[in-house]
Amino acid sequence: MADANPNWIKRLFTSQLGPVFALVVIVVFFSIAESILASGVFTSTRNLRVIMSSAALIAVPALGMTIIIIAAGIDLSAGTTLTLCGTVFALQLQNSPVPASDPAFVGTMLWALLLTVLTGCACGFLNGLLISATRVVPFIVTLGTMTIFLGIGQIIAGESTVYAPKENIPQWLSLCFTGSQPDKYLIPGVLIPTSVIIAVVLAIAVGLLLRYTVFGRNVFAIGSSESTARLCGINVPVMTVAVYTLAGFFVAIGGLLYFADVKNGNPTDGTGKELEIIAAVVLGGGSLTGGRGSILGTIVGALIITVIRNGCTLLSIPNTYTHIIIGCIIIAAVIVDQLRHGSPEWFFRLLPAREGR
Amino acid sequence: MEPASTNRSPASNIETASGDEDSLALFQVRGISKRFGPTRALVDVSLSVQVGEVLALIGENGAGKSTLLKTLSGAHFADAGEMFIGGQSYRPKGPSDARQRGVAMIYQELNLAPDLSVEDNILLGQKGTGGGLLMRSRQRDVVRQALDSVGLEHLDPQSVVGDQSVATQQLIEIARALAANAKIILFDEPTSSLPQKDVARLFEIVRGLQASGIGIIYISHFLEEVREVADTYSVLRDGHNVGCGRIDEISDDQIVSLMVGRDVNDLYPHVPHTPGLAWVQAEGIMGTPYPQNVSLSLRRGEIFGIAGLVGAGRTELVRSLFALDHLDAGIVTVDGTIVPHKVRARMNAGFGLLSENRKTEGLAQDLSLTENITMGSLENYTELGLINLVKRQRVASDLMTKMEVKAHSSSQLVSELSGGNQQKVAIARILHQQAEILLMDEPTKGIDVGTKAEIYRIMGTLAAEGKTIVFVSSYLPELLSVCDRIGVMNRGELREVRDVADWTEETVMATAIAIDDTTNEE
């Protein structure tokens, strides 16, 4: 019962801006800590660009994950799908008959892009189909497909990393990522990394999709109560397949951005990425029981993870400790999110007594 | 079968020194108050239960009955007030503390671990362990005794709880309370999910508990039931105690007016409507296991009641009319056209279903009223692929006003509303779907008297507009008062359909429990 929360607790946590508040606190903390303990580059515009473009790498696939999680699903295969897509793309460029400077390269590029996006969508489609047809829980289905997609990636990559020759990588593609150098952005004069622009455009599109379309509202309906959605004539199996396929599209775009960053395709790179993606959604207020989650939250969640990692690096905190810090932040975020919804009950039981004294 | 009315409780004998009731009270509650944020759920509530007495706690939904029981059983903490058991102060720190002090609560949604055995369930949370090890043999006797005293002599303590019927599970839960030496047992609407014959059995058990000196507080919406089982009553309204006394000294009408705070001279408001021509036909509907070869025809502007025991296939029938469940055979036609067995197709043909499970299926509890009312039919609001949220909000608000839903705004979450208001939201959604054939499965289940009357009125109004209503209910008085025709189901078959004037409670029941000649041999 939401009414059980004392007012001040409610006011603090109820607003959707909770994750934004957390992000601000973290940024302020690192700004101060880093300017005292290190060189003070944390707040430089260059570093901000680095943070934003790294966050975009998480945020784009997390857009699809947000839709899945709102629909009460989960996709553990997102990480290996992402690098499978990157590998497919790298292979196409590697095998390009002409270098990027040749006008005929356009055909190769279009085909490579199409194939990559189709790969992502096909992976999602398979997940969705298995989930609706077998009624096995998404966690298990995607746990299985996670390793399947990893294996497929390793087979097509010949069990090694796929390097595309430099001359086969067009300049603009490299410019899709390059976080720190403002002279190398795709749109000259705009001092925002191209990957960030892509992420923002996609985020706005998904935000609109979730809020203003029948599809988006049906995603919320299914996530809140699948049986109610069925009762209202929503075709749940078809919706499930559509949700996972769409998420696959965003994973594919994420794979392209990742390729633009590392310039190679390594199918094993993706292992563990799915957890980072899921963490971004959860930090942004997404509930694994479905029905809750927001695009703004997910973007903020991706930023929180990146800011912590970046800040820890600048403070020369070893990577191992960064893992622990991020883990603690995730758990703390979920606890705060639960407080917003009046759980755990024992905590609120303690409050009125304290107020009374 | 018929419980003898002379078999009254021993409480009337015990209460000899009625001049000084307080000193005799087994359980005494004084001035309990409880608030949730700005909401005052309980205000200065007092009551007392004597040894071997059944106190009926009566009130509309949202009056504070469940909150009160939860406070008594340690699930909530009172903000003010005091409680005594046998004269000793009682302030439970939590449900397990309450259990140790002898107060056990039987929730409406039972609280058993379905995968564990009966024995393990009964022993759950018991302290009778030696150094952390279960003392099996000693405890077996306790379990056996507890099961025997709730009439489950033949139940194997090793059987799995999930395999038992709801009624048996409820008795197991009572047995658990007894095994924990409960002195006071609190029941929250124990009969709402029980078939009739199990209700009678439950009442026998309750009388047995009384005879052994246990005090009982009992919530129920059914006044007949209250009369049958309780000695005293206490009426709650908006968290206040508005009346209490001996149940045989007050009439039903008086209780109802205490509950709603006004005179309810008509529990079953009648809106004049005349059934028109038959337009919906169902033929040979067969499911696994139910329904069994059901055919029926529905007229415009009629309220068609479906009676029968719980488990007779009534819910399965309406769900198959709505194409929610798989069907083995049968066709449904509307205006002579066959409607495919798909939910969408049935909805487009005018069907709408009000689920029996309001909480889990009927409504998405975590979504707003607007979302719930418009769920599944948003096409009318889309312009160029985008939903016009303002228009959607306005239509939802209009429907809320029409249905007299009591809520702050249409963006409030459904879970924050009382049961009756939630039901109105669920009905509002069916109206939003433009349904012409409303399949209403137990629409008044767990709803207070005042709201029930409103729902009957809404049904009548809809019928007067020419809509067809199929009304499934286990509560015969409402079927007989509200419907134009009633069909009785028995083991998946629609046994008999008659005009309401040709039915009585007795004939409906006789048809509902009639046994086929073939199975009559015993």
Automatic annotation (TrEMBL), chain A:
GO terms for cellular component: plasma membrane. The chain crosses the membrane at residues 20-42, 54-74, 109-129, 136-157, 185-210, 231-257, 277-308, 320-339. Pfam families: BPD_transp_2. Its main location: membrane. Keywords: Cell membrane, Membrane, Transmembrane, Transmembrane helix. GO terms for molecular function: transmembrane transporter activity. It is found in: Cell membrane. This is Ribose transport system permease protein RbsC. It comes from Stieleria marina. The lineage of its organism: Bacteria, Pseudomonadati, Planctomycetota, Planctomycetia, Pirellulales.
Automatic annotation (TrEMBL), chain B:
Gene3D superfamilies: P-loop containing nucleotide triphosphate hydrolases. Signal peptide: none annotated. It comes from the Bacteria. Its EC number is 3.6.3.17. It is an enzyme of class 3 (hydrolase). Keywords: ATP-binding, Cell membrane, Hydrolase, Membrane, Nucleotide-binding, Repeat, Sugar transport, Translocase, Transport. GO terms for molecular function: ATP binding; ATP hydrolysis activity. InterPro entries: AAA+_ATPase, ABC_carbohydrate_import_ATPase, ABC_transporter-like_ATP-bd, ABC_transporter-like_CS, P-loop_NTPase. Residues 27-263, 272-516 form the ABC transporter domain. This is Galactose/methyl galactoside import ATP-binding protein MglA. It comes from Stieleria marina. The lineage of its organism: Bacteria, Pseudomonadati, Planctomycetota, Planctomycetia, Pirellulales.
